[in-house]
From TrEMBL:
<keyword id="KW-0238">DNA-binding</keyword>
<feature type="domain" description="HTH myb-type">
    <location>
        <begin position="9"/>
        <end position="61"/>
    </location>
</feature>
<dbReference type="InterPro" id="IPR015495">
    <property type="entry name" value="Myb_TF_plants"/>
</dbReference>
<feature type="region of interest" description="Disordered">
    <location>
        <begin position="125"/>
        <end position="166"/>
    </location>
</feature>
<dbReference type="InterPro" id="IPR017930">
    <property type="entry name" value="Myb_dom"/>
</dbReference>
<dbReference type="InterPro" id="IPR001005">
    <property type="entry name" value="SANT/Myb"/>
</dbReference>
<feature type="domain" description="Myb-like">
    <location>
        <begin position="62"/>
        <end position="112"/>
    </location>
</feature>
<feature type="domain" description="Myb-like">
    <location>
        <begin position="9"/>
        <end position="61"/>
    </location>
</feature>
<feature type="compositionally biased region" description="Basic and acidic residues">
    <location>
        <begin position="125"/>
        <end position="134"/>
    </location>
</feature>
<dbReference type="InterPro" id="IPR009057">
    <property type="entry name" value="Homeodomain-like_sf"/>
</dbReference>
<dbReference type="Pfam" id="PF00249">
    <property type="entry name" value="Myb_DNA-binding"/>
</dbReference>
<feature type="domain" description="HTH myb-type">
    <location>
        <begin position="62"/>
        <end position="116"/>
    </location>
</feature>
<keyword id="KW-0539">Nucleus</keyword>
<keyword id="KW-0677">Repeat</keyword>
<protein>
    <submittedName>
        <fullName>Uncharacterized protein</fullName>
    </submittedName>
</protein>
Length: 247
DNA sequence: AAAACTTTCAACCGCGTCCGG
DNA sequence: TCCGGACGCGGTTGAAAGTTT
């Protein structure tokens, strides 16, 4: 009774993309645009499902992607947006030009969550974590009962803190500072105006086909746009090569 | 030097939503 | 109004890279 799978998986390739596949997909999209993801792999000569192609394009091949680490201010903005929007990563990503929802989600799960916990804040509610350690006398002030730590790795994470109580002291002092800084930031940050500003200037990770076609494909067929696309294709080769090297 | 462990992030999966017939 | 196909989103996984012991 369940849904049909998005595609017939028999004979379809999975896993990391190769440089040839990237080139095929990129060339196809640049030449034809995207009208239906389901047909893209067939027409592009790829043994992938449409979903996989879409994901690869959005998260890796899109021309407007910004690469590199998140800045402090980006992190702060993510925290603010998460406070308002929750785990709506695509909404959050729409305020960061060139960032994908997947990227932001990953960054949240691997870095920001920990940061907030260090600040004594619940990453879900952004409120101070109940100081149960005071009341329940469960002396081990394990900062993170690391419920999650993603892959349920709470098995070993507290090891260092437990072994080095003097470091806990330092961390707690730092945490207090960070905590007050965080609240100052929250109070001073004008999210609404920032959101409005962002909404005008940013593009979302859910890069729409029309947008894609207009901006990347040059709906006007202007030669200028074609040239800049060529330049982009050339420039993107460098990281594709690098990518294949990694793979 | 090597094994054990942790972190990162690309990719997958399944569900919800949208939209056309 | 209902149904089915396609897209988009968020959660999760797992391999590779990095770090510690």
């Amino acid at each position: 009774m369940g849904r049909q799978p998005c595609c017939d998986k028999v004979g379809l390739k999975r896993g990391p993309w190769t440089i040839e596949e990237d080139h095929k997909l990129m060339n196809f999209i640049l030449n034809n645009g995207i009208h239906c993801w389901r047909t893209v792999p067939k027409l592009a000569g790829l043994l992938r499902c449409g979903k996989s192609c879409r994901l690869r394009w959005i998260n890796y091949l899109r021309p407007d992607l910004k690469r590199g680490a998140f800045t402090e201010s980006e992190e702060d903005q993510i925290i603010q947006l998460h406070l308002r929007l929750g785990n709506r990563w695509s909404k959050i990503a729409s305020h960061f030009p060139g960032r994908t929802d997947n990227e932001i989600k990953n960054h949240w799960n691997t870095k920001i969550k920990k940061k907030l916990k260090l600040l004594g804040l619940d990453p879900v509610t952004h409120k101070p974590i109940e100081k149960t350690e005071k009341t329940n006398g469960n002396s081990s002030n394990k900062p993170d009962n690391d419920d999650d730590n993603g892959q349920g790795t709470n098995k070993v994470s507290p090891r260092k803190d437990e072994e080095k109580p003097e470091e806990i002291q330092l961390n707690l002092e730092e945490t207090n500072d960070l905590f007050s800084n965080y609240h100052m930031l929250c109070e001073s940050f004008d999210l609404d105006s920032w959101l409005n500003q962002g909404a005008n200037t940013c593009c979302s990770s859910s890069y729409s086909m029309e947008e894609s076609n207009k901006s990347s494909m040059g709906e006007t067929n202007s030669t200028i746009q074609q040239d800049s696309l060529k330049q982009w294709v050339d420039s993107v080769d460098s990281f594709l090569s690098w990518d294949s090297f990694i793979h």
